[in-house]
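Entry under discussion copied across for reference:
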Amino acid sequence: HGQYNSFFSHTKPKVDMDLYKKRRSESTVSTALSEDEVKITPRPLKVPTLEMAEAMPLDFSEMDNTQLIALAALNIVQARAEMLRRHIMSVDQIPYE
């Protein structure tokens, strides 16, 4: 768990705009800021809510069509089977069960 925190911790650069404008007005060649001039401020990770966890599909039958199509495109057999089942339901006008 701990080893993945650095992968998922998103940081957004914070730029000193006054310094950027000053550097830009002084030079016509380069407006790049040095590493010292860009401050990285990490934001806290967002964790799923109970509502999000309860809404997560647990089976292919609970997934929406977009999710199934994406998984079927990756050759996930269960997703392809679920798509076929839904197609049969649609064509033959029969319920899922």
